[in-house]
What we know:
By secondary structure, this protein is α+β, with helices and mostly antiparallel strands. It is about 35% helix and about 25% strand.
Amino acid sequence: MDRQSLERHSDFEWWIKPTGHMRVPGIIYAGEDLIEEMDEKVREQVVNVATLPGIQRASYAMPDAHWGYGFPIGGVAAFDPEEGGVISAGGVGFDISCGVRTLHTGLNADALEQHKEKLADALFHSVPAGVGSTGAIKLSEHEMDEMLRGGARWAVAHGYGKAEDLERIEETGCASGSRPECVSREAKKRQAEEMGTLGSGNHYLEIQRVAEIFDQQAAAAFGLQLNDLVVSIHCGSRGLGHQVGTDYLKSMVIEGYKPIPDRELACAPIRSDLGQRYLGAMRAATNCALANREIITHLARGAFGEVIPDAKLTLLYDVSHNTCKIEKHVSDGYTRELFVHRKGATRAFGPRHPELPPSLREIGQPVLIGGTMGTESYILVGTTEGERLAFSSACHGAGRAMSRTQATKRWHGRDVIQKLAQQGILIRSRSFKGVAEEAPGAYKDVNAVAEAAEHAKLARRVARLVPLICVKG
């Protein structure tokens, strides 16, 4: 990105002054190296989002930002319905409520060594992954609607998970305001056999070791110690969420707010019938994702039980990064109820936020940053400053440095798997092509991204995790 077009406010904060139809400035949080790596398209998309009606404070981009559909991936924007604010399908993304959940195992990483191959195989056979993957759960039309209303709570009620998990999930495992009747028949059909599956792309189930602690107080509050073994699951709403995004994007192009600077920014006034229908469908897809991660957790517990019965998988936290949430934030000196779009960006509530469970309220929300199958992941904690800086938002991962097509031209999946095995990382995947697309070198440096989030005061680093086993879509 051309730095000459940016106004530098600090080492990790860059502004785009309002020009033309921009209603607010654009703000990008990143270090100098990450700014230079960003495509110029990120700047263009940040500017375009800043032109939408009802936008508050600024159009934001996180340290891992890269070119997306309409909004940049890593984009954050909040809209006030009282000022004609809009809801944008492109501002949520197609994998609605894609997110990360991390679980304790109660084990030291050393306990894995003698079971590593067997556990990798057990997880691979227990959790379906890859393009078109299907699971053992087959939902009828009535069951589908019940799942779309109930989310993770539905999963627990049907024996797929534990009641104590719910406290550690956003919205205690169920997005209110879900309207399954606003989800198309095609979307439901696509999801009927996909519950409890990882899907493809950058989705994964990973066994990780806590390799470094940055914040002892927060780590203790999160129950993390050096060399602990943890499990991270990254996936979303599968075919249903993608179809909801596709369906409503088409409707917003035809019926939505005009004019817009880019067709991909198709949107609708929040209070319009179309806006309300999309919100109901999006919340249903959110519940689909929450139920999906809960079912995968249940399957992972079963695999661990077969191989390492002493493991006790308890949930640290589950947070989404493709959402639009109603939240109270201060804008222009007033506390307002805003619709916060986070696309490839993670909610990061700071200490004493009322929506956090009592066990986490004093320290702040765990912020789960996924890496790649060959690089680190991070656990951060939300900050008080994050509310003022970006509506309590932070990055969600490393962010792609090249396209999947470019990656497959540069790497071969079999070679990537062999190289990672030499580093002690076992990969299980049904697709060599998928592995090549997700090669570690196709992503930005997640260490730089996490460091930038901390220096920008969006979130604070707590622990660095390194992969040991990765089941890949």
